[in-house]
Write a structure and sequence with these properties.
It is built from one helix and 16 strands. The protein has about 270 residues and is mostly beta strands.
Length: about 270
């Protein structure tokens, strides 16, 4: 495991010196799913830009032990208003007898923004996800989900609504970010301190599989534009229904946005 981490770090440092930052990056306003709250905004990454995300989440479950989750993610602005991406979750589940570590699936996704905000309409996007049972903690079947995302701004404040439906095998779900049977969330954010910090509040509900109880969680989070291309985020979540959802969940992460000169069309560099 240590050798793998060392190799990954070396590869990341090598990549850093071969890329160029995305100009005028304000990534602190771009809410990614679970970064640091469940809700995401309706805007994709910039065209031809990459975004690497390295989040960590700790959950103290209601009567069900503890969970450690790291979900490396890469997204790419494939075209104007469209992005694709991949996630590779690694999780550690501790039910009191030791921590069981393993891969918790492979997820690919795509997002398309149909319109930016106008005077009469919010920004609206559709996102599609597919989760495959890769690894010992990934569940037993392939799952899919479709999500509608809306974002509306009022000066420094924005309101976001997410509604998603999942389908596929319900035999067992991944322990890390499972594609629930349905989920819905509402979040508000506001910029502070010369537009470099974003604070977010959220209420989210979900049902894992048919017949399961509904989880309702409340979350607070923040994103800080550390440099033009690096953003730090942190969040805190708590269940509202007894017996379902985490007693407490903590999230912290780092994202890096950049472009690779050789992959950008002539005239766009």
């Amino acid at each position: 495991m240590q050798a793998l981490c060392t190799a990954a770090t070396a590869a990341g440092l090598s990549l850093y010196f071969l890329v160029t930052p995305v100009s005028a990056q304000i990534d602190y306003r771009n809410l990614d799913d679970d970064r640091p709250v469940v809700t995401e905004d309706a805007y994709p990454v910039e065209r031809y830009a990459f975004e690497l995300l390295a989040p960590y989440r700790f959950e103290d479950e209601a009567g069900a032990g503890q969970l450690h989750i790291a979900i490396p993610e890469a997204a790419y602005g494939l075209a104007r208003n469209a992005q694709i991406g991949v996630k590779l979750p690694v999780a550690g589940a501790d039910e009191g007898t030791g921590t069981d570590w393993g891969l918790a699936g492979l997820r690919v996704f795509g997002l398309y923004n149909f319109n930016t905000e106008s005077r009469g309409l919010p920004a609206f996007s559709l996102r599609a996800d597919a989760s495959f049972p890769v690894g010992s903690l990934a569940g037993e079947g392939t799952r899919f989900a479709i999500k509608g995302i809306a974002t509306r701004s009022w000066g420094r404040m924005r309101l976001h609504a997410n509604v998603a439906g999942g389908f596929g095998s319900e035999d067992a779900l991944s322990v890390a970010e499972p594609l629930n049977r349905w989920s819905a969330s509402l979040a508000a954010d506001r910029t502070f301190f010369r537009s470099s910090i974003l604070l977010i509040g959220e209420v989210a509900a979900s049902q894992a599989v048919q017949g399961a109880p509904t989880a309702v969680n409340v979350s607070l989070g923040g994103r800080w534009q550390w440099t033009p291309t690096l953003v730090l985020d942190a969040g805190l979540s708590r269940r509202l229904h007894s017996g379902i959802g985490p007693d407490i969940a903590l999230t912290i992460g780092l994202s890096h946005a950049f472009a690779i000169r050789g992959l950008m069309p002539a005239g766009s560099q």
